[in-house]
Input
Amino acid sequence: MTANGASTHLVGQPALDHQWYPIALSEDVAPGPVGFQVIGRRFVVWRSDGGSLTAAIDRCPHREAPLSAGRMVDGCVECPYHGWRFGPGGRCELVPSSPAGTRIPPKAHLDALWVEERYGLIWLCPGTPQGLIPVIPQEHDASFRRLNTPFQRWAVSATRITDNFMDFSHFPFVHTATFGGAQETVVPPLHMGDLPDGYRGYAYDVMADNTTDKGQTTTGQDADVLHRRMTTGYVLPFSVRSTIAYESGLEHILLLLATPVDDVNSLFNFVVWRNDDFSVPAEEIMAFDLAIGAEDQAMLEQLEGVLPMDLAATVSVQSDRPSVEWRRSLAALLDGAAPGESPSGT
Output
């Protein structure tokens, strides 16, 4: 436990049940069923013939077979063990072993969970939503295009991923092969505050190395060093938005997302919005950001366990102020939120 009572574990934390977690690209559930693990529990998601999504615990109520191992039949997910079928909202539509007209037991129906589709991603809330899906206004701005990347599994706690993305003092040391080589190591005083759209974070300046081919493709500029005006802010529990503005007028918005699979494994995904002229293929643009992410992954997977919420367990300096504030906020969330009831439908 931390000094204020928050456990260093993520699995079994009631407050985390009531937050939103990205689990897949929209195209990954077409139609499904697809199984996922979030905070130590297994869930299944599928898409009906009409396109609507249903999420539930990945367990048939009959003999507890995983529904994600089944198949889709006539818009229903069919259990692989005895063929029970479940339609939109988790309603049991068929028990093959029962004669036609037999009443289906009420407990045969699945308890549907909250599921949303936004930014080309599928978001799951295991309980009653108390948190929010992060807001990205550029999603509705025709001058921006959205670029999605595949989900990755990282062997590191979601707490350490978020702590990393709230910090930029690691840039000159971790991102040496991409953009960090031109960044000063000394970090000026950082001022935390409320950013637009519900994020809590800070603004800062970065001198970015721009000598690689991938970097120049991403920035659309050929100067060796570029000035970036950036903001970084979080939405609890594990979402970070990083905005990058270049002097050319190009804006590059990243939504960096960590979903805890368990205490020490995570799904990682990021989404990008850009106001470029759309002429460069998405794959070429994303290659640079994927290389940056690979540098983060290589460093973070060397770190063991969940990042302690007890601030006295690690040493922090002034440049760590953003991640320290995020840790305090997460610890308060874990201590203060009460369990809720799961909905019967979305």
